[in-house]
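Q: Entry one of two.
A:
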Amino acid sequence: MPNSIAMEKKVTVKVCTGTLCYLMGGAELQLLPERIPAEIMNRIDFKGSTCSGFCNSPENGKAPFAEVNGKCIAEATVEKIVTAVREELGGVGYGSK
């Protein structure tokens, strides 16, 4: 079995559901599980998060915020989250969409 440890790796994705994030585009991110490419879908644990607090520090960037394995994604979009997930999974064998 080729690299079974890497094949079993899961990525945790948290989407901030705080008011600012929701209003700034996070509402679209609530549909994230429906927009994730099939080849990585079973490798992701999705979690909602009440206000993550990233908006309290300007150096974190702008809302909406998400986290991929604890890394802050500012101005989060489905595309940015998918890219970050693929990077966490090592990128090998995962097409662009």
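Q: Entry two of two.
A:
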Amino acid sequence: MDATLKRYIFMSETFDVSKRYYVYILHSLKDKGLYIGFTTSLKNRLTKHARGEIKATKFRLPVKLIYYEYFINEEDAKAREEFLKSGFGRRQFKEALKRTLSML
């Protein structure tokens, strides 16, 4: 059996890859601010943001997805969201994506 296939089989037995958790960052084109969120369905959540169905961004539309991370563990994703919302986390994020942010 191919080594890559063995690794895949091992990973699929070890991790439930059907569960997905996302931490994402939106940029408001209206007020130039950032929104950091958590979801289990990024596509559905972005659709809700675009339709104005999310209270936190409803009056900040339009918004643009500028960054996201994918996790297989919900607690890790929530911890990452909390970190990014902290002062240090925001500074770290802004430094890491300074070129992206300068283009917006």
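A: Comment on entry two: The mean pLDDT is 89. The beta strands are 21-28, 34-39, 63-71.
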